[in-house]
Amino acid sequence: MKRRDLLKSAFGLTAGMVGMSALKPLYASDDMVVRGPAVPDVAYTKVSDRCYYLLAKDPEPSPENFGFFSNPGFIVTSEGVVVIDTGGSVQIAEMLLRQIKKVTDKPVVAVINTHYHGDHWLGNHAFVAANPNVDIYSHQVVINQIKNGSGDFWIGFMQRTTGNKVSGTIATSPTKALAGGETLKFGDTTLKIHHFGKVHTESDLAIEVVEDKVLYSGDMMMRRIANMADGSYVGSIEAMDKIKALPVDTYIPGHGKHDGENLPNEFKTFCETIYNDAAKYYDEGLSDFEMKPKIMAHPFMKDVASQWPGYDSTLGKFIVVAIAEVEKSMF
């Protein structure tokens, strides 16, 4: 089935995917497709000659932010626009398309999804609707996850957290796999694809824009404490060293503001502090709730990480994940 036909048939299935009881019709006619409201424009941030992103100021999805809590980005090449992550709904991606058009009239020639968490790829729907033949790239694990039904979970999650404002979004999978190590050429722009193993997830890709010395790093590093359950502390620590070794000056994360080398340095210290302290206190026989105040007393945690969104509410979960990884390393 061609993509255009797939989208037509999928519109009839969307309500069923998210559960009709959870939806409130947003149009006067029940015969029309249930669809959430448009997302207000978010101004683009220009990082270099080619590189842009839309900064999501909120760390979590909510009805007020329409589920816009991760950073979609785009690269303007002489051949066309390459989009890095598409946001968590068709409406967010449509807003992204509007911002791209404020920068250039060039077509979108490719999309790259950095990993399988839905706030980074559910917007694929809008790009396929605009151009059914657009190439969408990701790690093969992302394609496998969506094939196995993860889109249902992510649409449901976004619906619950936004008050159904992503209604109408269709889970749209990438079609081309990247493993890391590839070089993609788009006219005057060279993109190097990096995969460092299991970091935030096992599917993370980083996109290096060679000519501008910019790295779109997805969720491999951020000043935000939200989800480590799919990742690895050891993998994250090792990845930060590999990222810092790249000929890059500026990093654009999947959440939060772009920055220079302080970003990977701080995230590495964060991961090392939690993992190493968890290992030490585990050897001393402490439980997770006994470890937490001791880890929070670390100078880096008090002075730096305590300022990150999610610190008070989520740090305990990060410690539990660290303990599990420490235990696993023993076998």
Give a topology summary.
Elements: H1 3-11, H2 14-18, E1 44-46, E2 51-54, E3 73-76, E4 81-84, H3 90-103, E5 108-112, H4 124-130, E6 135-138, H5 140-147, H6 150-162, E7 176-177, E8 183-186, E9 189-194, E10 206-209, E11 214-218, H7 233-244, E12 250-253, H8 262-283, H9 288-296, H10 299-303, H11 311-329
Parallel strand pairs: 4-5, 5-6, 6-7, 11-12
Antiparallel strand pairs: 1-2, 2-3, 3-4, 8-9, 9-10, 10-11
Helix pairs in contact: 3-4, 7-8, 8-9, 8-11, 9-11
- Count the strands? 12
One letter per element, helices H and strands E, the order comes to HHEEEEHEHEHHEEEEEHEHHHH
Coarse shape: globular
Assembly state (oligomeric): single chain
Low-confidence region ranges: 1-31
The average pLDDT is 92
SS field, number of helical segments: 11
> Percent helix among the residues?
25-40%
Ends distance: 47 Å
Strand order of the largest sheet: 1-2-3-4-5-6-7
Rg of Cα set: 20 Å
What structural category arises from helix and sheet content? alpha/beta
| Biggest sheet layout | 7 strands, mixed
Classify the beta-strand content into a percent band: 5-15%
Plain-language structure description:
With 331 residues, this protein is of the alpha/beta class. Helices cover 37% and strands 15% of the residues. The chain contains 11 helices and 12 strands. The chain has helices at residues 3-11, 14-18, 90-103, 124-130, 140-147, 150-162, 233-244, 262-283, 288-296, 299-303, 311-329, and strands at residues 44-46, 51-54, 73-76, 81-84, 108-112, 135-138, 176-177, 183-186, 189-194, 206-209, 214-218, 250-253. A hairpin with a 4-residue loop joins strand 3 and strand 4 (81-84). It is globular, with a radius of gyration of 20 Å.
